[in-house]
Design goal:
This protein has helices at 35-45, 74-82, 114-121, 130-136, 139-149, 153-200, 206-218, 220-236, 241-258, 263-289, 294-313, 318-384, 439-442, 445-459, 479-492, 505-508, 535-547, 553-565; strands at residues 2-10, 13-19, 24-29, 61-68, 91-98, 104-107, 110-111, 125-128, 391-398, 422-429, 437-438, 467-471, 497-501, 513-522, 525-532. It is an alpha/beta fold. Helix 12 crosses helix 14 (445-459).
Amino acid sequence: MLKELRIRNFAIIEVLEITFSNGLTVLSGETGAGKSIIINALNLLLGHRATGKYIRTGAKTAEVEGFFEINDHPQIKKIMDINGLDSSNGLLIRRIISRKDRHKIFINDRQSTIQLLSQLTSSLVNISGQHAHQRLLNEDEHLLILDQFGKLMPLRIKVYDLYHQLIPLIEQLKKLQKQQARQAEHIELMRFQAKEITEADIQPKEDEKLENEQIRLQHAETIYQKVNQSIEQLYDSDGAIVEILSKVQKDVEQASSMDKSLSDTCERIQEANALIDDITSELRQYLEGIKIDDQRLQIVEDRIYLLSGLKRKYGGSIESIEAHLKNIYKELDNQETIEEKIVEAEKNVSQVYKQLKETIYILSEKRKNCAGNLSHAVEKELHQLKMNQTRFQVKITHKNNDNHTDEFLTDGHYVFTETGIDRSHFMIAPNVGEEMKPLASIASGGELSRIVLALKAILSGTESVSTVVFDEVDSGIGGGVAEMVGQKMVALSNHHQIICITHLPQIAKYGQHHFRIEKHVNSGRTHTTISPIDHKERINEIARMLGGEIITEKTIEHAREMIGSTSV
């Protein structure tokens, strides 16, 4: 509940303080006195956009402050506690407006954000004025009203939560599917390359070995001749090296028997002779392996050609081919991971979609059941507000699937939205014999005012807001209708704190608390003031509202009778 409102240097208000109470509070005053300024100030406390144009001429800043009791708002207390704000003494909101648009928001004397302010005040105050009339012409508002009336908000919130849980899951699934589609051709290439490399069965250093074998096979005849000649020169021919070395060995041995200093030399000659034997043996063995094999040469050359092609494609070496194959396997493993993720994403989407669909249809069925009840309730309230012949209907339709909707946001028949599959339309026939038409097409200003009030009365037990402000509720009405509007506000004040700005005495007379807003000019400056008025002043104010500036004894008496006739 709003307890205190303080305004400083705001428009034509220099300093203004109001203390509010329970029940029905009436604010009245002459046109232009500043009643709309009060509404603008309240809107700032609720998170509306601030602008430097609100600052009073000559001042550097404007300030609006409001104090709210929140004992009946555990959810607001919870939000405050979560954000580290002490909620034990209520909620104090202060907004400071700067000409340089460096505005500040304070909640319980701690600087805060517009987001937190809006979150805290959304269920505190409802201002019903020209904007409320415009909202009533918006069919999205009709569905919200139906849900509030039917106490379907928990189901509506569940649908909202499931819908917004489903959307990112769908986006994630589509992202994975697009990623998979983009990679499909690339993956096919990777699989081909992996098959090509693995079927080649490449061995480490194989290219070097094959190139050596190729040279050997290409020159096998020459190699055979050269090695054979070497064997002959070392061992087989007359005057071979081994023969000469054996003679040398014999001569040195004889000399060594006469001079022991030649013993080491003699041993080395013996070793050389043995080495030649070994070399000759190795060459003979090698010679046995030398064959002129054109078939083998062709096989080797074909293999070299294959490996050369693979090396050109995959980095220039056997090692680079092996590294490329490892990278392929890594990419293929990642692709398998994407496929697993897609399966998991499809599972998650399917689960939430199923929950959303079930909840949507439960909500839709309950809305159908509530629509008739709301229609009858509104008609009853409107009849009490002098719209005796008016017929009112809550019509429910659905948005049909147009084949352009995401497959997970439809059941094939209707489109799923964050509010379900339903659309609600308020239909009205103000006069007998007329057909039902959409509210926006035929309702007058006075009719809209009464419909707003009727809906407020119907929803009074379901709305969580503690304070309702009526601005322009008397638009387009007067006389007996205004009388009924005043009585309806008294009834509403049993459930909410009601603040009503009015120019009609038939409404103002029902005020349990009455403030007069006045405009004065002092020292060349305009000032707006607001003051609580006592019983005598209230009679005078009602008389002014009845007869204008000239107040006669008759209007005074009429005002006295009007106030006395109320049962407040």
